[in-house]
Amino acid sequence: MKTFQEFINEAGIDDWYKRGKDKRIPGEDKASIGKLFKDDLAQVGKFENPKTGKLEGGMFPNPTKPYQVKQFALGQGGITRSFNPFLGPGKGLRSGPTPLGRRTFKGLGKVARIATKIATRGRLG
Fold first, then answer.
1. Residue 46: phi, psi to the nearest 5?
2. Which residue, 51, 57, 65, 77, is most buried by CB atoms nearer than 10 A?
3. pLDDT tens per residue across span 10-50
4. Residue among 24, 8, 34 nearest 99 (CA)
5. By residue range, what is the domain housing residue 92?
6. Cross-strand bridge partners of residue 55
7. 48 pairs with which residues across the strands?
């Protein structure tokens, strides 16, 4: 039977989790939550302009731009793009977590370890 770490490595989860680490925010482990939150909002949801190929916009489509409405409806733009695992490598969900997502996951891991210690001891002290 494989260990948890072997499973993580084989599935590529570790590579996905570390993708982009410290690129947008150098030293993201020590960055303020406010800075991480601001960066997260800047990354959430974009639309690909069919004429220029550049990413633009925000979480929701501009109704005056039909291509944005179409991309949003198909899960290829806006907030729907951020959670779509079928866009291809490096896009949507497959691009890896944001720095805030990594920090949140680490925090939940810490809470789980503390809760396990409390549960096994049967008390707080």
1. -140, 165
2. 77
3. 667 778 888 889 998 999 999 999 999 999 888 888 899 99
4. 24
5. 4-121
6. 48
7. 55
Distance CA 120, CA 64 (A): 58
**Tokens standing for residue 117:** 């210690």
Find out whether 19 and 80 touch, Cβ atoms under 8 Å. Answer: no
**How crowded is residue 82: how many other Cβ atoms within 10 Å of its Cβ?**
20
* Contact assessment for residue 55 and residue 87, using Cβ atoms and an 8 Å cutoff: no
- pLDDT tens column, 51-108: 999 989 889 999 999 999 999 999 999 988 888 888 877 787 778 888 888 899 888 8
Q: Total domain count for the chain? A: 1
CB atoms within 10 A of CB 77: 27
Q: From CA 41, how far away is CA 79, in angstroms rounded?
A: 10
The alpha carbons of the chain give a radius of gyration, in whole angstroms, of 19
Spatial neighbors of 18 by CB under 8 A, at least 6 apart, are 96
